[in-house]
Specification:
Helix content: 25-40%
Oligomer: single chain
Shape: globular
CATH class: Alpha Beta
Radius of gyration: 17 Å
Largest sheet: 8 strands, parallel
Bound molecules: zinc ion
CATH topology: TIM Barrel
Strand content: 15-25%
């Protein structure tokens, strides 16, 4: 079974796909999906959307096809101040905790911030739901830090580009923390499985088992 945990497009090659839906443009869905307010779509002038973020997001998640909150996150390449992004992110992280849903994260130049957030403690650990960094293409030193803080890591098309640092990162991720995705691309998830299996020196069959076990454990709302 091929599982694609993050796609914005119809992708026929996977057996299970989690489609990403944007909160600000949400239409009810028969497909499995993740939903959230992406940092790119934060409009500081849209007071209505911001004030109703918690209610709107919680309401959507009554749909049992909601498997995760996402993609949400922090992005230093955009103009929206990181303080505003953090506030919006934290509201959505709280919802993920209340509803016991995992989180799919979009992180750009904000890794130290997200690691700090994960390790926030108020008496006891604040956030316990699984957090998945999607579209990972950074160095293995960062993988080590993320794994230490309990993150899951999802690889996409960048693994097809023969980049030694990304391949090294993939090898560094423990089997029980790994996911695969196609994101915005038209690439088949099967090709990503094949390439990842080759780099990890396992069979595609073994890789399918690894990802399936992670999927069942992390996306616990899935009952298929
Ligand atoms: Zn995406």
């Amino acid at each position: 079974m091929f599982i694609n945990i993050h796609s914005h497009k119809f992708n026929g090659s996977a057996d299970i796909v989690i489609y990403n839906k944007m909160l600000d443009n949400f239409k009810n869905s028969e497909e499995l999906f993740s939903v959230g307010l992406h940092p790119w779509n934060i409009d500081e002038t849209d007071i209505y959307l911001l004030n109703n973020l918690q209610n709107n997001l919680t309401k959507i998640t009554f749909n049992k096809n909601t498997l995760a909150i996402g993609e949400i996150g922090l992005d230093k390449n955009i103009d929206t101040p990181i303080s505003v992004q953090t506030k919006i992110l934290q509201i959505q992280l709280e919802i993920s905790e209340q509803l016991k849903l995992p989180v799919i994260l979009h992180i750009v130049k904000s890794y130290s911030e997200i690691i700090k957030l994960r390790n926030l403690k108020k008496g006891k650990t604040k956030y316990i739901q699984p957090w998945i960094i999607h579209g990972f293409n950074k160095k293995y030193e960062l993988v080590q830090q993320l794994i230490k803080s309990g993150f899951y890591i999802s690889f996409g098309v960048s693994i097809l580009n023969n980049l030694p640092h990304v391949e090294k990162s993939l090898i560094e991720v423990p089997n029980n923390k790994l996911f695969l995705e196609t994101d915005e691309s038209d690439v088949s998830i099967v090709d990503i499985y094949k390439k990842v299996a080759e780099i990890k020196r396992v069979s595609v069959d073994e890789l399918q088992h690894i990802i399936y076990n992670n999927f069942k454990r992390v996306f616990s709302r899935y009952d298929g």
